[in-house]
Amino acid sequence: MKLRIKPLDAILATAEKKGLHRSLGGFQLTMLGIGAIIGTGIFVLTAEAAQKAGPGMMLSFVIAGFVCAVAALCYSELSSMVPVSGSAYTYTYAVMGELLAWMVGWALVLEYAVAASAVSVGWSGYFVGQLKGWFGIDLPATLVAGPFAGGLVNLPALVIALLVAALLTLGTTESARVNAVLVCIKVAALAAFIVLAVPAMQMDNFTPFMPLGEAGVYGAAASIFFAYVGFDAVSTAAEETRDPQRNVPIGLIGSLGICTLFYILVAAGVIGSPLGAQPVFGAGGEVLSPGSPELADRCRAVAMLSAEPVACSKEALAYVMRTLGYPNFGNLIGLAAFLALPSVILMMLFGQTRIFFVMARDGLLPEALASIHPRWKTPHVVTAITGIAVALFAAFLPVGKLADISNSGTLFAFFMVAIAVMVLRRTDPARARPFRTPALWLVGPLAMVGTVGLYVSLPFDAMMVLPVWGGVGLIFYFLYGYRKSHVGRGQVEVHEEDADVPPRPVPPLPEL
């Protein structure tokens, strides 16, 4: 069997012949990264982290952030060398071949599309709460929840997903401008939370620091890894970036560093509040799982006797603000989340459409998906299809475990990028590297070990989704992609601008 590797020179030549419009700078990329990172994780998953790790969730944020940091360094080198769309998929194609590249691209569906659906449903909850809190409007239960949650259709989630997809279709620059406004809103909200909560910290609340031990800290890190999901979407914008060799690393590392600092300070403010952040135990002292009926029952029982614990709250940050004596600001935190979450949906959809765009450009998916709108200069076909699919998932499917499922696909992609950058250092050492990962032979293995460690810390059912989903992907690949692949047919892509030029042969395929 031959190992189908697409040469880097061919990848770069294809991008030059059929490239997307380069309109993004370093600041815009950093804002896009922050827009993708800060969202559902910090606004929603803080309570789950408290239930799993207690005050030790601060370490959980550090662990998850560290794994992302070493992965970001690997991403930065590859994205500066290969400034095209496709992210981990493209890098894997160039280094380890088509089959593994397909698996990475297929796994990224778990990161981007599933996460976009989950965030759409999360936004729906805030939307319903804002209508009730500010205007006293109660929407019918059948229209704000899918059939698995006792309703008929989650209409707000469906609508927001379609609106964001429409915005992406109109243009990348327009999307980035809207995103920058939303990013400023949520960063301002978190900054105000830190200013008010951190000075009021009660240090006694940090003891015991790890009530459920190291396993609880790692388990929380695996779950709140979702709070960092999306920073790699910056690399999918490389083909639409001015001076990508400089600006992509700035966007990746800058957004990750800013968000990690915010997360640690927010976690400290939550833990140090009068509520504390100790997990809720059962009546017999047993450990209760986040999201379980047993935890919900116990929370109701505890709330009847005293203040509701942070681990029980569905709006932890707003709840802390109200407890500290800032009820109006607590309501504004909810408003900020309502306004900010669409930026996360935007980046998830952005990343997903660009992955599909490049896979179609390689022939692994129907080439019609790679068509670019003559006026808007965006991949409008694949954006529309992806937006509709995400909207339908959000409207009808349950989302209780979607964060963990999304994490499994992301961790696999990070693992493959760490391998790719080390292999490329060996196989093509002379190629220009505008950004070189420092101490690669330490950073690369740390990224691999870190991603595997977080993966095995996920719940068992979330871990099993990845191999099952991968098996489905292999069926699709051998039924369509294997036969239609341009590299497999000995061709470099031919598109509109060079349709009359005969296909160029690629170098002989190496034997596996």
Please give the domain count: 1
Low-confidence stretches: 494-512
- Report how far apart the termini are: 6 Å
Number of strands: 0
The name of the CATH architecture is: Up-down Bundle
What do we call the CATH homologous superfamily? Amino acid/polyamine transporter I
Rounded to an integer in angstroms, the radius of gyration calculated over CA atoms is 23 Å
> What percentage of the residues does DSSP assign to strands (E)?
under 5%
- The helix/strand class is mainly alpha
Tell me, rounded to a whole number, the average pLDDT.
Answer: 79
Question: Which structural traits does this protein have?
Answer:
18 helices; Amino acid/polyamine transporter I; globular; 512 residues; 64% helix
Describe the 3D structure.
This protein is mostly helical and 512 residues long. The protein has one domain (24-490): Amino acid/polyamine transporter I. The protein is 64% helix and 0% strand. Helix 9 packs antiparallel against helix 14. Residues 494-512 have low confidence and may be disordered.
Quick description:
With 512 residues, the protein is an all-alpha fold.
Give me the secondary-structure topology:
Layout: H1 8-17, H2 26-37, H3 40-44, H4 46-53, H5 57-81, H6 87-96, H7 98-135, H8 155-170, H9 172-197, H10 213-224, H11 244-272, H12 293-303, H13 316-323, H14 327-361, H15 380-396, H16 402-427, H17 440-456, H18 460-484
Helix pairs in contact: 2-9, 2-11, 2-14, 4-10, 5-10, 5-11, 5-16, 5-17, 6-7, 6-16, 7-8, 7-14, 7-15, 7-16, 7-18, 8-14, 8-15, 9-11, 9-14, 10-17, 13-14, 14-15, 16-17, 16-18
